[in-house]
Amino acid sequence: MKFTIQQIAALLEGEIVGNPEEELYNLAKIEEGKKGDLTFLANPKYKQYIYTTKASATIVDKNFEYDKEITTNLIKVDDAYKAFSKLLEYYNQVKNNKSGIESPIFIAESSSYGENVYLGAFTYIGENVKIGENVKIYPNAYIGDNVTIGDNVIIFAGSKIYSETVIGNHCVINSSVVIGADGFGFAPNENGEFTKVPQTGNVILEDYVDVGAGTTIDRATLGSTIIRRGVKLDNQIQIAHNVEIGENTVIAAQSGVAGSTKIGKNCMIGGQVGIVGHITIGNNVKIQAQSGVIGNVKDGTSLQGSPALNYADFSKSYVLFKNLPKLASTVNKLEKQSK
């Protein structure tokens, strides 16, 4: 894609210092910029690179001043970081602006879809599926029977959306996601063998939910597994049956949430966190990476460790843990002296 500096400045409502007609072809980091690249400077630590970058244009704050010669053109905006983020979002929209129905594809006659959709090759769409407007479903996706998909949803290649799933508006489902597979429900019989408990519920994703690549969200045994508005799930996360995750909670990669646990609003959960089933985690909770949560958590708590402790208590305990070899050595010396 090709744009002039003038076009980018107009999009960002910025002021140009330099040549407005110079053309831009690519986005780059400031230290790696070359002719035709557009970059940005938001962190003062990188100011040195403004004097060496070969990028054709650099987005900077309006109050930015340089004290040596520069060769890059400047686009001055209120907030360089936010402006560049807006540009990245626009770039993605343009890059992914596909429409139409490719072939081969299977769409059940009982299913429907709105205007301006993209349905990629080898996609399967089952019975009674309802797809909204401006939806993009990339190749090799599977959409099961009775699925509902809202407007402005993107489902990337290879994802599987099982029957009865409900996806709200403005959701992003990355590649190889599985939504609505059976929960892990088995019961032992009199012979000690495990028999499957039917999983008859579904999964509901509310609006503005992002699901990372390889993440799995299981259907409920009864009722619904619910991912509330604005939740962001990283790659390779396991969400078990009947879990509920509150609005605007974010969970990092490789974490797992066991069945029937309720997580509140605005929580931040680090990578590789394990959360047992049938507990309640309050609002505004922060859980550090690799923690193991085994009980209910009150609003506003910060946790770390396995089993997880209050963050302040964990920090104090860790200081002692690091000194255990020295303490053991001291105890051994005292024991020898006392004999």
From TrEMBL:
Top-rank taxon, per record: Bacteria
UniProt cross-references to Pfam families, sorted A to Z: Hexapep, LpxD
Active site: H241
The EC number(s) this enzyme carries: 2.3.1.191
Keywords recorded for this protein, A-Z: Acyltransferase, Lipid A biosynthesis, Lipid biosynthesis, Lipid metabolism, Repeat, Transferase
Associated pathway: Bacterial outer membrane biogenesis; LPS lipid A biosynthesis
Catalyzed reaction equations: a UDP-3-O-[(3R)-3-hydroxyacyl]-alpha-D-glucosamine + a (3R)-hydroxyacyl-[ACP] = a UDP-2-N,3-O-bis[(3R)-3-hydroxyacyl]-alpha-D-glucosamine + holo-[ACP] + H(+)
UniProt protein name: UDP-3-O-acylglucosamine N-acyltransferase
Species whose genome carries this gene: Neptunitalea lumnitzerae
